[in-house]
């Protein structure tokens, strides 16, 4: 317990360090002293610097933290609920479900009339549609998981739902005008940088809701580590836990995907990476650890994506996959077997 | 332990019928489980052993009749209340092998912990007691993935002990174990019933061992469920009827089954 508390505190420190590093990197070179001055509301040499820091880089860093921690936590929730080490919001088709929701709003809106689309196309609509999309896919995967006990089958079913939703998205794109299609494609690359403070606030509200709900599941998630039969024998209310976990994951993965696009591997890889450092399996300790780990990894990925010293920003989704896939392969080869 | 402690009834059935929606397995069952008793449930494959265990643990509703847990009807208890009466050890090993021994045993305290599952001083005391009782304290930090089948069985049993229920059900605790460890587990269960006054009920195929070591036997055979002491069972002709007579027969003088 003592050791893990130290690890958590250390994690927070590293997180702050990476956050400052993330803010200090970008196409415009701003001295560290001026960055701190902007953050602390002191005098800054150039007003544009303050603007870049406060209106662009800071919301982006906060988005990265919310996205990374939220996705990593939903990965942990999925892995424990499905008792499957390979579960995660992307693998189980949650991100595809959210994509479908977003596509319905961006593409569907443009097909079914201009007036309605401008009315519907507010950020709230996007987030709610995306959350509903992921919750729907999750419920479908869960319903089939009662019929098939085999974990591999479950993952394949997740993949099938992903192709189903992407097929619907293809049909929608086929009938969409070029601008909305472009808008959708850019969204699907994933980006952390385009959020206004108001949008960050909406994301934060969903994030808090998701976290709050999952905190109430911590005890039953621990008993689920023994399997559903043991969990029931320990007095867990399975139906309620399942519903709450799905709701929390849907809110987290849905809202994050709505704003930042479908981001792969964070949800799958971070819980396993965290388990290499934190030896406890108690979700009370794993929860903050995984959240901090996800935030740190996302900040790193974002720092790489903006290619320090250049004007180019790479799609964040590509970076997380480039880092995440080798990490999962390395873990599988080294540990021979992954546990949830 | 003091043998003269008062024996109390923990579980009692009343005109119990068990089975599934459109299939009756056995009817009018009368079973009684008392404190400190080691009871084996025996029967051939597919006879309904696990249906009986599922029903007695509250996992499956009775088709008819009642099950009383210390005067309380089992159907009126929710899972949280039930977890104070019955703990289980299952054959299913689909739990996270990432857990270490101490963590796994600690999960047995869940019925008593707060909404976050934090362990109190008393919880930690009970966990240590369970680890000591099964002599696995020095293994407490080992991961389950590093344990042998026999050690894992002890850990799962320790978890059930930590749950501190008057009744423990085990589903075939000796499968996958060699003869020595089978006897070891039987002896261990017997010792636990004597030391803790808990009643332990377990399904098993080891009839020879059960006849030697158990206080009571519940025989499940062809829709009939009978509870007797080993001596009574041997005197009755029921064991001779258990298997088809072409390969194996029960020899009452040696109290064991013999290959023909």
Automatic annotation (TrEMBL), chain A:
UniProt keyword terms in alphabetical order: Cell membrane, Membrane, Transmembrane, Transmembrane helix, Transport
GO cellular component: plasma membrane
Major localization listed first in the record, in broad terms: membrane
Membrane topology label: Multi-pass membrane protein
Domain of life: Bacteria
Compartment(s) where it occurs, according to its Swiss-Prot or TrEMBL record: Cell membrane
SUPFAM superfamilies per record: ABC transporter involved in vitamin B12 uptake, BtuC (SSF81345)
Protein name (record): Iron complex transport system permease protein
Family that this chain belongs to: Belongs to the binding-protein-dependent transport system permease family. FecCD subfamily.
UniProtKB/TrEMBL annotation, chain B:
GO molecular function, one term: ATP hydrolysis activity
SUPFAM superfamilies named in the record: P-loop containing nucleoside triphosphate hydrolases
Annotated Pfam families: ABC_tran
Keywords per UniProt: ATP-binding, Cell membrane, Ion transport, Iron, Iron transport, Membrane, Nucleotide-binding, Transport
GO process annotations (BP): iron ion transport
GO cellular component: plasma membrane
Domain of life: Bacteria
Domain called ABC transporter: residue spans: 5-247
Subcellular location: Cell membrane
Signal among keywords: no
Database matches in CDD domains: ABC_Iron-Siderophores_B12_Hemin
Topology term for the membrane: Peripheral membrane protein
SMART domains: AAA
Chief place of localization: membrane
PANTHER family: IRON(3+)-HYDROXAMATE IMPORT ATP-BINDING PROTEIN FHUC
Protein name, entry field: Iron complex transport system ATP-binding protein
Native species: Mesonia phycicola
């Amino acid at each position: 317990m003592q050791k893990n508390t130290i690890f958590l505190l250390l994690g927070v420190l590293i997180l702050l360090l990476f956050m400052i590093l993330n803010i200090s990197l970008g196409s415009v070179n701003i001295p560290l002293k001026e960055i701190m001055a902007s953050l602390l509301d002191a005098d800054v040499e150039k007003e544009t610097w303050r603007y870049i820091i406060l209106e662009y880089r800071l919301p982006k860093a906060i988005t990265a933290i919310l996205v990374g921690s939220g996705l990593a936590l939903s990965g942990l929730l999925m892995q424990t609920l499905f008792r499957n080490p390979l579960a995660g919001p992307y693998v189980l088709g949650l991100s595809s479900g959210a994509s479908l929701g977003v596509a319905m709003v961006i593409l569907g809106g443009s097909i079914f009339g201009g007036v309605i689309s401008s009315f519907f196309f507010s950020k709230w609509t996007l987030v709610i549609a995306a959350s509903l999309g992921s919750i729907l896919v999750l419920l479908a995967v869960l319903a089939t998981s009662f019929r098939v006990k085999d974990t591999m089958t479950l993952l394949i079913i997740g993949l099938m739902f992903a192709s189903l939703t992407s097929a619907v998205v293809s049909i929608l794109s086929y009938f969409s005008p070029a601008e909305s299609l472009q808008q959708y494609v850019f969204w699907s690359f994933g980006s952390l940088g385009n959020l206004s403070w108001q949008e960050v606030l909406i994301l934060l509200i969903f994030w808090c809701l998701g976290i709050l709900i999952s905190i109430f599941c911590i005890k039953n998630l621990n008993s689920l580590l023994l399997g559903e039969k043991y969990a029931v024998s320990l007095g867990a209310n399975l139906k309620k836990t399942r519903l709450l976990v799905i709701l929390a994951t849907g809110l987290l993965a849905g809202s994050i995907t709505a704003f930042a696009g479908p981001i792969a591997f964070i949800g799958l890889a971070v819980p396993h990476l965290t388990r290499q450092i934190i030896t406890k399996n108690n979700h009370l300790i794993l929860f903050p650890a995984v959240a901090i780990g996800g935030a740190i990894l996302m900040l790193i990925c974002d720092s790489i994506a903006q290619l320090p010293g250049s004007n180019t920003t790479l799609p964040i989704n590509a970076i997380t996959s480039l880092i995440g896939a080798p990490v999962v392969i390395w873990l599988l080869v080294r540990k021979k077997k992954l546990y949830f | 332990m003091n043998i003269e402690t008062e024996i109390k009834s923990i579980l009692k059935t009343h005109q119990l019928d068990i089975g599934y929606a459109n299939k009756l397995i056995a009817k009018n069952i009368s079973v009684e489980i008392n404190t400190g008793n080691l009871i084996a449930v025996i029967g051939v494959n597919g006879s309904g052993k696990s249906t009986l265990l599922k029903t007695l643990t509250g996992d499956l509703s009775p088709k008819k009749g009642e099950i009383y847990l210390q005067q309380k009807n089992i159907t009126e208890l929710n899972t949280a209340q039930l977890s104070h009466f019955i703990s289980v050890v299952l054959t299913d090993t689909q739990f996270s092998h990432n857990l270490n021994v101490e963590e796994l045993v600690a999960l047995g305290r869940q019925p008593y912990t707060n909404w976050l599952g934090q362990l109190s001083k008393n919880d930690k005391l009970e966990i240590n007691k369970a680890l000591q009782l099964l002599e696995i304290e020095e293994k407490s930090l080992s991961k389950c993935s590093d344990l042998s089948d026999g050690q894992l069985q002890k850990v799962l049993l320790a978890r059930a002990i930590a749950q501190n229920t008057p009744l423990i059900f085990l589903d075939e605790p000796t499968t996958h174990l060699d003869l020595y460890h089978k006897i070891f587990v039987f002896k261990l269960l017997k010792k636990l019933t004597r030391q803790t006054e808990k009643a332990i009920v377990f399904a098993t195929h080891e009839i020879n061992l059960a006849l030697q070591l158990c206080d009571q036997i519940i025989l499940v055979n062809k829709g009939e469920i009978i509870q007797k002491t080993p001596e009574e069972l041997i005197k009755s002709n029921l064991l001779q009827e258990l298997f088809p007579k072409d390969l194996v027969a029960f020899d009452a003088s040696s109290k064991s089954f013999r290959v023909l």
